[in-house]
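(Protein data)
===
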Amino acid sequence: MRLRLNRGHHVMVLSALFLFMLLIPRLKASSEVDIEGAGKLIQTGRYEEAIDYLEKTRKGDPTNHEALLLLGRAYREIGKCKKAVEVYKKALTVNPTDSRALIGTGICYGNMGMKLEAVSVFEKVVEGEPNNALAHFYLGVAYERVRSMNKAWEQYETLKTLDRKLAEKLYKVIFW
């Protein structure tokens, strides 16, 4: 059996192909919109919704680094630090030196009572990014938690030159 298309069918097929070609860039851009949407959910404290949103995104693209970072943060914010660390480790397989994933991992370690592991992670970030004020802050907090007050003070001194507000917060952690 032969399929015969008249001139009108050719126009319809070509129109459909043209529309499909126009939609391809929008489909790719929709993943960016998903990431932005998830970020907004997190900013507004809607962590469970963000997790659902990001888990769906992750199934379609398991190496989407930004999605992994946001997912790790959402899990961390609801207190599921073990799950957050798993997600951050996946993000680190995509980008092993990403300070956001390392800092998130360190925060989780600290929250889980793994104080020495937290110190180690924050030291790694500071070593790779000596001007990362947030890393110095959390390293100072981690040193305070392991009662290494001289090292915590060193982080405070460094922070004074990088970010005065974070330095003041660290001072309160060390001495209050």
The chain has nine helices and no strands.
